[in-house]
Design goal:
Elements: H1 2-16, H2 22-32, H3 38-56, H4 59-69, H5 78-106, H6 109-128, H7 133-146, H8 150-159, H9 172-203, H10 206-209, H11 219-222, H12 226-242, H13 263-267, H14 272-275, H15 279-290, H16 293-321, H17 333-379, H18 390-421, H19 428-458, H20 469-486
């Protein structure tokens, strides 16, 4: 029986293989080897981590960096200028995400990934060497504009898994594979967003923290924010060298008579009939993607929560390091780094052990909504931490940070799963590009908007309605509440396999 099945399928498999095509070579490997591709998952994980580290590594020391660049005339204005530095990376990525997605569908996933990691090595190091406010903004903008690997790496994470040959793409096996790949990307990204600030908190201003090792006249004394950036860049060099052995998954043979290779056709290289659809059919596929309400509604929800998470990261460090007379906690960058390091360790444990069990019991939709409700309750308590001090403040702040980040990762992971299951395989390339472009726009606006709001809030300490930083956390909660409302019917169209949850 097995022999007959093998004889029946082998001609079809031979048609899929083209000499010299890296995508066909990898498909042949997938057909011969069963199980989880751990080596490819390792490449995905380190590439996402190398990209995530510089995104938020500046937050613990950004407050002090703006202060030392002498661009803010008053202490209350530091948040205003810090917001634009935080936004410049995402603004650059917003402008080029679609271009990098198209490039990945033409020249391959691997070259785009390696260019993105190389940009981390160069421009993250230059950011640490910034001697002016505009140099800082420029280097962060170029880092974001040239680092377009997150969209292609999501497509890559699906392509390295064994394909499912059933008519419906909602089988249990595919669902599990999707969960593994999406959790891989979101876990790496989430941990990077925590380890990055921890590095920035511990290693910024080394001449002040480690005077026995770094003197004020030393190189790192003259460039006090270079050391954390340099550590991230060194890690990116290691990742760049490692990714030289990363297998390519893009099919580079012609998929139709005129040589046109659309995003949809390339993304669906595992299905021969869809590889050979014409240009008009591909255009119709792009149109249907915009008309796919389950996908579009999940993108909108994802963008709202991404805006909230980016704004929270910006506000948390500024609020924790600002003086208590302005409603802050008067913490040092090292203190903030320590809190975020503890949070990063908890995130790893949560994603690998706790979250899968919560997802199994509650399902992604219920866990999604419960996490949003708990976030709202917690954020209302943040401004009152300014009345604490000593060990009590440290314990409460660590617990709050751990809970907040893990709840946020629950939300983002669910968004990834919903988006992936809302589109067919042949539309995932276009879907990832659209998602990254819109999400980057929201994440670009968030730091700038919150920086302006934070600076304004610190000037209204005696106001009657939510004075000082209470207004900041009230607005964060308003955004979270909006996201929660959007998860309800009829706005969020949930794929059928989740309706029972």
């Amino acid at each position: 029986m097995a022999m007959e099945e093998e004889q029946h399928t082998s001609p079809m498999l031979e048609k899929e293989y083209h000499p010299g095509c890296p995508g066909c070579d990898y498909d042949r490997k997938k057909d011969l080897q069963r199980g989880i591709p751990y080596r490819e998952f390792f490449y995905i994980w380190i590439a996402c981590l190398a990209t995530a580290l510089p995104v938020s590594s500046l937050f613990p020391f950004l407050y002090f960096m703006i202060r030392d660049l002498h661009v803010a005339k008053r202490i209350e204005d530091i948040g205003f200028y810090a917001g634009f530095v935080g936004a410049s990376f995402m603004f650059g990525r917003c402008l080029t995400s679609t271009i990098w997605g198209i490039a990945a569908d033409h020249i391959g996933r691997k070259p785009v990934v390696m260019v993105g990691i190389l940009s981390v090595v160069i421009f993250n190091t230059l950011f640490g060497l910034s001697t002016s406010y505009w140099m800082a903004i420029t280097t962060r903008f170029l880092l974001g504009a040239l680092n377009g690997l997150l969209g292609p790496i999501k497509a890559y994470s699906i392509e390295v898994c064994r394909p499912e040959h059933e008519a419906l793409g909602l089988s249990l096996v595919r669902y599990r594979s999707t969960n593994v790949t999406m959790m891989m990307v979101s876990t790496a990204w989430g941990i990077g967003l925590i380890i990055g600030p921890a590095l920035g908190g511990y290693l910024a201003l080394p001449a002040e923290k480690f005077p026995n090792v770094f003197s004020p006249d030393s190189f790192f004394g003259r460039f006090p924010y270079l050391l954390p950036c340099l550590c991230t860049s060194i890690f990116a060099v290691v990742v760049l060298v490692s990714c030289m052995w990363m297998p390519e998954t893009l099919h580079k043979h012609k998929v139709c008579e005129n040589g046109h290779q659309s995003i949809e056709a390339l993304e669906d290289h595992l299905s021969e009939p869809k590889e050979k659809v014409g240009e008009n059919t591909n255009l119709d596929g792009k149109k249907s993607l915009l008309m796919n309400w389950p996908f579009m509604s999940s993108i909108i929800v994802y963008c709202v929560f991404s805006f909230h998470d980016m704004a929270y990261l910006e506000v948390f460090s500024l609020w924790a390091e600002s003086d208590k007379k302005y409603g802050g906690l008067s913490l040092s960058s090292e203190d903030v780094g320590q809190v975020l390091a503890v949070t990063g360790a908890s995130l790893l444990v949560y994603q690998l052990i706790i979250y899968p069990r919560i997802n199994k019991v509650l399902g992604p939709i219920k866990s999604f909504r419960i996490a949003a409700i708990l976030c709202i309750i917690m954020l209302f308590a943040y401004p009152y931490m300014t009345y604490l001090s000593g060990p009590g403040l440290s314990i409460i702040l660590n617990i709050a940070s751990v809970l907040k980040i893990n709840l946020s990762v629950t939300i983002i992971t669910t968004c990834f799963i919903l988006q992936n299951n809302a589109v067919p395989q042949n539309q995932r390339g276009a879907a990832n590009g659209l998602c990254m472009t819109v999400m980057s726009l929201f994440k670009a606006v968030a730091p700038a908007a919150e920086g302006i709001v934070f600076s304004w809030a610190q000037k209204r300490q005696q106001a009657f309605f939510f004075p000082g930083d209470q207004m900041v956390f009230f607005l964060l909660n308003a955004i979270e509440l909006l996201g929660l409302i959007l998860t309800l019917k009829p706005f969020l169209a949930v794929p059928e396999q989740y309706n029972t949850n």
